[in-house]
Amino acid sequence: MGFIDSIKAKAKADKQTIVLPESMDKRTFAAAEQILKEDLANLVIIGTPEEIATNGAGFDLTGATIVDPFNDPNKQKYIDKFVELRSKKGVTPEIAKEQMEKDYMYYACLMVKCGDADGAVSGACHSTGNTIRPALQLLKTKPGISSVSGFFLMEVPNCDLGENGLFVFADCAVNTDLDSEKLAEIAALSAESFETFVGKQAKVAMLSYSSKGSAKHDDVTKVADAVAIAHEKYPNVLLDGELQLDAALVKEVGELKAPGSAVAGQANTLVFPSLEAGNIGYKLVQRLAKAEAYGPVLQGLSMPVNDLSRGCYAEDIVGTVALTAVQAQNAKASK
Fold first, then answer.
1. φ and ψ of 240, to 5 deg
2. How many whole angstroms separate alpha carbon 205 and alpha carbon 194?
3. Is 243 exposed, middle or buried, given 0-12, 13-18 or 19+ CB atoms closer than 10 A?
4. CB atoms < 10 A from the CB of 225, how many?
5. Over the stretch 273-310, which tens digit does the pLDDT of each residue have?
6. What local confidence, expressed as pLDDT, does residue 124 receive?
7. Strand 305-307 to strand 119-122: parallel, antiparallel, or no bridges (unpaired)?
8. Which member of 7, 9, 35, 201 has the greatest number of CB atoms within 10 A?
9. Is the pLDDT of residue 128 over 80?
10. Extents of the domains making up the chain
């Protein structure tokens, strides 16, 4: 069974309710039809009757719940919750109503916040910022977590590195400014994400162009300091660094460059020192190694919300909904 098939099986075993707010995009409806056919989740699609009729024409949406953001009987409840959460930022009932009708992602996040859904997926026709902003404003981060980060689950074919070709790469999508504290936090969150989705122990490598002090530079020090912080704050995470990529993945190189390391040569969770490196790294592996790249999956939010690439296919939405459902299962189990 491939990785995404195992995720779909988990999602199907304990169905969660996932909101799709992008009713202005036909890919949403193609994905919805497949999700409902495979029985992966209970689906809510936010859209007006006109949007549903125009973009959903020809798709079988039997079983989906359609929420009209202009005529929803629960709308006042969501307006009240929006005002409760954001009144100190100047949000009035009138502003809340206007924002919810203009940007359905706000509506989706309010449904999740009020317990009427377990997660949301957006981004097929909206930017990452437009997906994350409502989530941060309304759902917030987990207690003790300073920021949201994004990772990709990479499935590399014919690969015996990592966990038989499975890896988490982070942060490849969200944070442009990474200091040592944030890198350490991303490492801990990424370890948790790897174990949630793969079911094996995470072995986290903090990547650099240096291994164990082989080079001297502020960029290297940043990663080395992150390792020290992570060891102190997250002692249960199996983590080491700073490590060059080959030292992190290849046993013989790891033994040479980081002798005695419990991670070197066997890492399955890779934390990149910058967004630039992470984004380039995952795309290199995706294109050159023909790897499947699932994500960006968001971590650090109090409730599951996930982003899509604007170039995504309907099948990508299906996979992201399944991943979001598994996150929701895990969030409930950890309460």
1. -155, 165
2. 13
3. buried
4. 17
5. 999 999 999 999 999 999 988 888 899 999 999 988 77
6. 83
7. parallel
8. 35
9. no
10. 3-140+301-333, 149-288
Question: Please, are residues 43 and 31 in contact by the beta-carbon 8 Å criterion?
Answer: no
Report the first-to-last Cα separation within the chain, whole angstroms. Answer: 30
Place of tokens 């390391």: 261
Fold exhibited by the domain 149-288: Rossmann fold (3.40.50)
Kindly calculate the radius of gyration of the chain based on its CA atoms and give it in whole angstroms: 21
- Pair 2, 155: CB distance under 8 Å: yes
Question: With contact defined as beta carbons under 8 Å apart, do 187 and 204 qualify?
Answer: yes
Give the type of residue at 334. S
Q: Name 241's bridge partners.
A: 206
- The sign of the dihedral angle between the CA atoms of 74, 75, 76, 81 is positive
Classify 86 as helix, strand or coil. Answer: helix
What does 22-56 look like in DSSP terms, one character per residue? -TTSHHHHHHHHHHHHHT--EEEEE--HHHHHHHS
Topology, domain 3-140+301-333: Rossmann fold (3.40.50)
Condensed to tens digits (0 to 9), the pLDDT of residues 136-147 reads 999 999 988 888
